[in-house]
């Protein structure tokens, strides 16, 4: 059974100011998602599941889905505010989606095999997909999951601060925790976090989570259980979100298994700010010139 790639594309892109998931960055109008799907196909994945907002489905199919349906099986899932909220009345003032872990839960009806979860607007690189495929095929179990670890220095933006999930890793290479650090910037080769947490300075070699996770389908039952707890406690908090690291943290603390940290040589990049777009296009062209990607993916 071939692994599945699940892509989180339902975000509102508030900081970037547009639906950046379908913006073209490649020389033939390819989106960042196109490169992720291309890497997944050549690594051996057998299906792609897009988690999107229902109102974007037609534009999304035209921009993304129709191009790749001949190359790999494609499914669409809608992250709706009412999904998995049975027994709870969603407040009328709630406009923000329930978060990334809820989005993954929404994909449960379409995913029956080991799967990877990624963001739509991050470029992860071929090495990440090859290593995740090997993990999903050979190691993934209901008590063994994984996260891709990126070198923190390689995940920063020149155009503003970023927030990153900082990974604590034990001597066995397993995840201990993911702590969200805020307002991270690079100045004079020093990485600084301008939040109220310690340490204030982080090593460039620190493992950062870019939301690249590998799970067994057994995780869906666990996510649903935790979501019921979350919504009962946070129903009337309009900005509360149910994130994937919440699941990972509980999974580890409850000793249900381990989450391996897989190091990748891939160079991550993404579009946090509009000013990042030029950098993304430049880096893609360098990869194309080096022969790592064709000039026209599809």
Question: What topology emerges from the helices and strands here?
Answer:
Layout: E1 4-8, H1 32-43, E2 47-52, H2 57-68, E3 73-78, H3 100-106, E4 115-119, E5 122-123, H4 126-138, E6 144-151, E7 162-169, E8 175-187, E9 190-193, E10 201-202, E11 207-215, H5 219-234, H6 244-253, E12 258-263, E13 269-270, H7 276-289
Parallel strand pairs: 1-2, 1-4, 2-3, 6-12
Antiparallel strand pairs: 4-11, 5-13, 6-11, 7-8, 7-11, 8-9, 9-10
Helix pairs in contact: 1-4, 3-5, 3-6
Give a summary of the structure in a few sentences.
With 298 residues, the protein is α/β, with parallel strands linked by helices.
Walk me through what this model shows.
By secondary structure, the chain is of the alpha/beta class. The protein is built from seven helices and 13 strands. It has one domain (4-289): Spore Coat Polysaccharide Biosynthesis Protein SpsA, Chain A (Alpha-Beta Complex). The protein has helices at residues 32-43, 57-68, 100-106, 126-138, 219-234, 244-253, 276-289, and strands at 4-8, 47-52, 73-78, 115-119, 122-123, 144-151, 162-169, 175-187, 190-193, 201-202, 207-215, 258-263, 269-270. Strands 1, 2, 3, 4, 6, 7, 8, 9, 10, 11 and 12 form an eleven-stranded mixed β-sheet that branches. It has a two-stranded antiparallel sheet with strand order 5-13. The chain is globular and about 55 Å long. Mean pLDDT is 91; it is low at 12-18.
Give the mean pLDDT: 91
**What is the count of structural domains?**
1
Largest sheet descriptor: 11 strands, mixed
- CATH topology call: Spore Coat Polysaccharide Biosynthesis Protein SpsA, Chain A
What overall geometry do the principal axes of the alpha carbons give? Answer: globular
Q: Percent helix among the residues?
A: 25-40%
- Strand fraction equals 25-35%
Compute the CA-based radius of gyration: 18 Å
């Amino acid at each position: 059974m071939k692994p599945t790639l699940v892509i989180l594309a339902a975000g509102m892109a508030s900081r970037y100011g547009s639906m950046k998931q379908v913006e073209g960055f490649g020389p033939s109008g390819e989106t960042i998602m196109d490169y992720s799907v291309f890497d997944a196909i050549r690594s051996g994945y057998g299906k792609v599941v897009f988690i999107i907002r229902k109102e974007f489905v037609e534009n999304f199919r035209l921009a993304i889905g129709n191009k790749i349906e001949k190359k790999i099986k494609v499914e669409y899932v809608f992250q709706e505010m009412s999904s998995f909220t049975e027994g709870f009345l969603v407040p009328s003032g709630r406009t923000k989606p329930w978060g990334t872990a809820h989005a993954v839960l929404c994909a449960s009806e379409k995913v029956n095999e080991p799967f990877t979860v990624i963001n739509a607007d991050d470029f992860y690189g071929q090495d990440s997909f090859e290593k995740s495929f090997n993990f999903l095929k050979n190691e993934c179990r209901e008590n063994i999951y994984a996260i891709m670890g990126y070198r923190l220095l390689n995940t920063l933006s020149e155009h503003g601060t970023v927030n990153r999930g900082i990974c604590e890793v034990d001597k066995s290479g397993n995840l201990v925790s993911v702590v969200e650090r805020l307002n991270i910037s690079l100045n004079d080769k020093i990485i600084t976090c301008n939040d109220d947490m310690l340490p204030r300075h982080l090593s460039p070699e620190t493992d950062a989570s870019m939301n690249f996770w590998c799970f067994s389908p057994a995780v869906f039952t666990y996510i649903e259980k935790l979501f019921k707890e979350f919504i009962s406690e946070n129903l009337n908090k309009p900005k509360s979100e149910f994130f994937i690291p919440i699941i990972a943290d509980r999974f580890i603390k409850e000793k249900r298994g381990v989450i391996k940290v897989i190091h990748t040589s891939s160079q991550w990049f993404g579009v946090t700010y509009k000013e990042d777009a030029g950098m993304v296009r430049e880096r893609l062209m360098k990869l194309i010139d080096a022969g790592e990607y064709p000039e026209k993916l599809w």
